[in-house]
Amino acid sequence: xxxxxxxxxxxxxxxxxxxxxxxxxxxxxxxxxxxxxxxxxxxxxxxxxxxxxxxxxxxxxxxxxxxxxxxxxxxxxxxxxxxxxxxxxxxxxxxxxxxxxxxxxxxxxxxxxxxxxxxxxxxxxxxxxxxxxxxxxxxxxxxxxxxxxxxxxxxxxxxxxxxxxxxxxxxxxxxxxxxxxxxxxxxxxxxxxxxxxxxxxxxxxxxxxxxxxxxxxxxxxxxxxxxxxxxxxxxxxxxxxxxxxxxxxxxxxxxxxxxxxxxxxxxxxxxxxxxxxxxxxxxxxxxxxxxxxxxxxxxxxxxxxxxxxxxxxxxxxxxxxxxxxxxxxxxxxxxxxxxxxxxxxxxxxxxxxxxxxxxxxxxxxxxxxxxxxxxxxx
Length: 378
Description:
Elements: E1 4-10, H1 24-32, E2 38-44, H2 53-70, E3 74-80, H3 86-93, E4 98-105, H4 112-120, E5 123-126, H5 130-142, E6 151-153, E7 173-178, H6 184-195, E8 203-206, H7 227-232, E9 234-239, H8 251-258, E10 263-266, H9 269-274, E11 281-283, H10 286-297, H11 300-318, H12 324-334, H13 342-351, H14 355-377
Parallel strand pairs: 1-2, 1-3, 3-4, 4-5, 5-6, 7-8, 7-9, 9-10, 10-11
Helix pairs in contact: 3-4, 4-14, 5-14
C-alpha cells in the first residue's frame, strides 16, 4: 500500500529545528508518533535569511527540490507572521498536494502573507488567536466564498508526555519569565528588574532565541533539554504578550499547565474564553503584576491549588487527543472536513452570544491590507 507522504515545512527556525522548542505541538507528533503508513519529510524554509530577491530564489529552489524529492500528498506549513510568501504557495498549488497551514503567531491585523494562505491553501488551522480565526473565517466566507471547513481553530497542544509532564522538584527560581524579550515584553522585563529586587524577590529571565544574542533576549540562555526542568523548579511562571493590544493564546501557558506550573499571565479575552476559571492567575497592569507576585509568593497553598487545577484541566482536555494531527492529515489528503476537538466546540458555545457583536469587529480587523490582498496576490 502506498504511504501517505507529508512534507512538513518549518518557517521559524533560529538554530536547529530539531533542538528548538518552537512548533512542538506539530513537530513532535509528526516526527515521533505518526502511524506506519505515514512517510514524513522535513524542510526548513529559512525565511530570516531572505533579504534579497536572490535569497528568495535560493530558498524557493530548495523548496522545489524538496517537493520533487518527496512528492507529498499533504504539505503542512508551520507559519508565523510574514514567513511563507504567496509566491511559494502558488508553486505548491501546481503540485496537486493538499496544503495545510498551521498559523501559530498571527499579527494584530491580518496581512498579505496570512491571507495568502487562505487564497492558495486548502486548509488553515489557527492555533493562537480566536479573534483572528473568526476574522479569517469571515474573510474566507464573504470575500473568497469558501467553506468554513477550510478554516479551523485549535489551541490544543499534543505535547509528548515523556517530555511535558509533572515531576516534583525543589523550588529554585522564585519568579521566572521564559522566552524572548520582544516588543512590550522588554518593557515588562525592565520594570520587574527594577521593582522586584527592592522587594527582596529574585527574578530570572531565561530561554532566548539564540545563544549568541543575549543583549536583550535573555539573561540566561536555556537549552531545550533544561526547559521543562526549569518549569518544575519555578514557583511563579510569568507570561505576557509581545504587543500590548494583541489578543493571543500564548503556547507557553499550555506548556506550563502541562508541566504542573503556576502561571501568572496578562488578562485578555482569549484566555478568559478558552481557559476555565481558576486554572491560571491574571494580572491587569504592571503595578498589578508586582502586587500579584508579592501576593502569591507568600501564599504557596493558594499557588499550588491553582497549579493543580490547571494541570488537571490540561490532562482532561488534551490527554486523549494525541491522534489529532494524524486525523487532520488523513482528512486533508482526502479533501474532507477538518476534525474539531471537543475543547474548541466548548469555545464556540461560549462565543455564540457574541457572534453578532463580533461580526463587524472581525471585518474591521481584516483591515485595508486584507481588502487589497486578492488583487495583490493574483
